[in-house]
């Protein structure tokens, strides 16, 4: 009934194989397994707020996000997850859209839902930005969509050069930085500090993944382009951010200890996982700077491994074959808690050999 | 920046007059002031859920709603408040849309946002459905939007006759029943039990108002029209309902005691308010079957009274002048807790005379 290209199929997999969520290790969603301290307190506080309609302009919320990013709150538009921001942006964008693949499928779905024509571009074989490929196709699009760090490759890089190129050609750059906070030295890669300077830039972020609360639904868009952001406000449905999401933002962004601890954790844990995964036969491991890892299978195909892990090991991974530019050789796994990661690695060792 | 026609202006009014929310009595939003028992427990339980993505098909949630309404879950599509359902429906509707005014302004805003042409129709002067007016305009629209009980009039009536007329002409009826649960004998007026029989019917509901939690954001659409509902699922953004909303629906619909108590409360309280309001000079009170009352001012205009109540009495009411078909003589007030209602009545008595 619902045609979605991504891996959000925990429920359907459980249904298919008669399994219960309690004992499934879900490596298919890229979520921080550790949530901020005292979050239960902030959530209960949000209950009081929820007996009233949220402020339709979300002034407080935008100020909290603005303080976190050191940006004026007027540059910020909040949404029900990054999804709402993506769809709303597609609603006000005109001209054709370049998308650099492989990447999150909702960009294309949102564009198509708003009758925007897509130009598919591709990263190079190491999942780095292919500037020549983009330059050669510059005439074909008005805006370019890049996910950085990229989902599913885990690669992060500086996009300043492409931002500059697009600026000169009067074209727009949209960067999904949803996974940027997981990157250890993210200040080297984020474009947030260039928002004021470049009005051809739109950045999408979310609290979903880094703060470990995808079910609370909060994303936001950032741009100094007044034309784009005011059009988005015009089309925005009212009250899309709930009171619980609104309320925790008074606290979580200020929790520097948690933020630093999380960054440190993922830096170490991804090194541990990549080292151990590299010992396994029949797979190729791609370097990652964020909280998930792309793997290439050299012997089995993705659906076989996915089913085997689920049925025999109660582990759910992301079959990455439906990302444009990938094929049935690719799977993606999240970085979770140490003992869970070990369970995954052991299961893969058993199935693929060491 | 945001052009919204409704009264959600608590934040801007407070900002304008330098007041704080703590002591403002908000009669502009029509929300049940009593929330279900144990809701804090259900909310905290939802925190666990929120560390995962919600089921993108919301199977459990739809089954809970289905059980509540005694309907198959496949007829139900959940959304981020009634708003998402309204916008999504406008996205898949074709042909022109008749709207019966005065009514909630988001129907028109959603239609315009999706380039649907509007035909404005009107209730009669007692805010009853004007069947002749609708019959005379049947050729001009493909679907008709009615809010029942109507916001802002508070009038409720049976829509079976118009449903039948539209069915014969192969036209669609959309009914916003957001306020239906407040009606004492709502079974006489709701069309929910005709959903199976009439595939030209779409009903919009929400937990927002009756269960007193607008900030939790949950509405839903109901139809047996497979074409409409499958198109809506196709266009639906993923995960728009948060885990907290999802989780409380396992409980609140089963709380028959709370539901009955609420219905009884509003039946008594609206009688009390209407009786007392009728003692006040210079206003005309319209009968209401739900949790708000429309008033016509015979001496002052709506913006004067709104400002006076806010500045002098810390009471916020809804200036109803921007509803199509109304004018600067109309205001709307919610039914709240007894002592709050008394404060409003006393303030109005003081300003308008007895």
TrEMBL record, chains A, B:
GO terms for molecular function: catalytic activity; pyridoxal phosphate binding. InterPro entries: Aminotransferase_I/II_large, PyrdxlP-dep_Trfase, PyrdxlP-dep_Trfase_major, PyrdxlP-dep_Trfase_small. Keywords: Pyridoxal phosphate. CDD domains: AAT_like. It holds the Pfam family Aminotran_1_2. Its cofactor is pyridoxal 5'-phosphate. Residues 48-348 form the Aminotransferase class I/classII large domain. The keyword Cytoplasm does not apply. This is Threonine-phosphate decarboxylase.
């Amino acid at each position: 009934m619902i045609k979605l290209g991504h891996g959000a199929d925990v429920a359907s997999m459980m249904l298919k194989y008669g399994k219960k969520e309690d004992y499934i290790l879900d490596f298919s969603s890229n979520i921080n397994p550790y949530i901020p301290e005292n979050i239960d307190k902030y959530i209960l506080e949000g209950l009081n707020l929820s007996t009233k309609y949220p402020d339709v302009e979300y002034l407080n919320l935008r100020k909290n996000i603005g303080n976190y990013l050191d940006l004026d709150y007027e540059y910020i538009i909040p949404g029900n997850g990054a999804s709402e921001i993506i769809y709303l942006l597609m609603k006000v964008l005109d001209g054709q859209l370049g998308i650099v693949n492989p990447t999150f499928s909702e960009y294309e779905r949102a564009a198509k839902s708003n009758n925007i024509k897509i130009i598919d571009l591709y990263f190079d074989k190491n999942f780095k930005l292919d500037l020549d490929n983009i330059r050669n196709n510059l005439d074909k699009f008005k805006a370019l969509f890049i996910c950085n760090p990229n989902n599913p490759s885990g690669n992060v890089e500086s996009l300043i050069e492409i931002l500059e190129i697009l600026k000169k050609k009067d074209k727009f750059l949209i960067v999904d930085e949803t996974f940027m906070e997981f990157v250890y030295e993210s200040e080297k890669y984020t474009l947030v500090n260039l928002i004021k300077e470049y009005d051809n830039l739109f950045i999408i972020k979310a609290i979903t993944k880094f703060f470990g609360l995808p079910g609370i639904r909060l994303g936001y868009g950032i741009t100094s382009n007044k034309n784009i952001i005011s059009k988005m406000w015009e089309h925005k449905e009212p009250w899309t951010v709930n009171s619980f999401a609104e309320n925790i933002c008074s606290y979580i962004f200020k929790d520097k200890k948690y933020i630093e601890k999380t960054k440190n954790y993922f830096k170490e844990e991804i090194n541990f996982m990549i080292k151990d995964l590299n010992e396994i036969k029949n797979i190729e491991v791609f370097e990652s700077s964020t909280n998930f890892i792309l793997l290439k299978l050299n012997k089995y195909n993705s659906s076989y491994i996915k089913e085997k892990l689920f049925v025999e090991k109660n582990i759910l991974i992301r079959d990455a074959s439906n990302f444009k530019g990938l094929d049935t050789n690719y799977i993606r796994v999240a970085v979770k808690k140490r003992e869970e990661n070990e369970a995954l690695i052991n299961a893969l060792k058993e199935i693929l050999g060491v």
